[in-house]
Amino acid sequence: xxxxxxxxxxxxxxxxxxxxxxxxRPVKAAVIPCKDMIDQGLYKSIVRRTTExxxxxxxxxxxxxxxxxxxxxxxxxxxxxxxxxxxxxxxTVAYITTEAISAGxxxxxxxxxxIMRENTTIGDCAPIQPGVKLEGIEREKTESFTRAAFxxxxxxxxxxxxxxxxxxxxxxxxxxxxxxxxxxxxFFEGNRLPSDPNVYDLDDKELIDPNDExxxxxxxxxxxxxxxxxxxxxxxxxxxFLAKRxxxxxxxxxxxxxxxxxxxVRWLNSPAVMSILIMVALLGVYIELNTPGIGLPGxxxxxxxxxxxxxxxxxxxxxxxxxxxxxxxxxxxxxxxFVLPGFGVVGFFGIVCILGGLFGMLVKNPPDKLPWPQTxxxxxxxxxxxxxxxxxFAGFLALAWLATRWMPRLQLLSGLLLAxxxxxxxxxxxxxxxxxxxxASAAVKVGDVGEVVSKLRPAGRARxxxxxxxxxxxxxxxxxxxxVEIISIRGNxxxxxxxxx
Length: 501
Fold this sequence. Notes:
It is built from 14 helices and 19 strands. By secondary structure, the protein is of the alpha/beta class.
């Protein structure tokens, strides 16, 4: 018996020695948060941070997703980047921390794995356009594009395609049937149900999504239906699941947040902020044209225009041609206002260039192609941009009316805006003067000769008799005490030139 025990012990020890020891492969993970509204700013940030993670040697790219959606075009750009670029270089994972709704669902299913935190949701990607009710062929055009994006993700990453398509189109109903040969459940659209009872259990088919609902899944349902790979309580749980399933060990995990400048650009490009910037810029131009010299309103307008153009350029909507066109328009308009008398061809051409540059920035296009929308998504983005500009213009008209009506009457603000001129008999015009009150109603007319009291560069002030009038010199700068003659009066704009008299 003792000999038998020794033999058995020897055999067990030999088996233990010969049994292969599997060691987990060391890998590095990069966690990249993708929060709030999905837009071009987020797309640019994701590309930057993903590139940085890959350069740092990341094997797993874990995108923390918590969003109610955003721009469909931006979501499609991110989805294609995940499948066609990042997914080829590393293992992509969508870790849903709160919700992945609408465009958030699109970018989530474009990752190789979806891991959901408990009590989160995914789905509801029916296209919408603010202020417009999509119906008929217009809705189908947008939904067809979106369904194709979800089908592409299902094919690339092995998700149930009928379920993903039901997140987009309400009319799609989805059933779950058991394959009696494999013992596994499969999903089918209502109009594509199998008919062979030898392969599928047709009597016990289960309706997952009716044809009058858009599919949204809870975390537990997503796990049961094969949309989610795992259900966890936190990020560590997600990494533990990946480590056990793939036989790896995460030796290092880096976290790459968005930069403050990226968040600022995203905020500036939001429709509401863009409308306010346009409104303030136009109001600044209007006040500047009605005040002498170059002051604070003009500076504010320049800053707003720079912010508008710069934010569009940084998000890829504006190319160098459109920026150059906008700058040329500003220069032409400045020449017309400050150098040439009146308003003519140069000013009109400047306005056309400015509008052309602004509208071109609403469509993403290379510099060698006209900025014209090519797809339904392009038209949607263009329409949203135009609506934002129109709201800004409407706000400008309202504020300009209030400024014209009330600012000259307020003592503290009267110097910022000239009061409208009132025509008098004999071609004379009454102006808002900066002279003392007892002569504030004095009148001037074409041909009057006065003296410059503040340098004209080219706008400034000149004295005609006892009245001091805001004037603009014709294509020249004039020093103090220079004699000037009024050559034209257009509304409240008085144009002068040096006089030999």
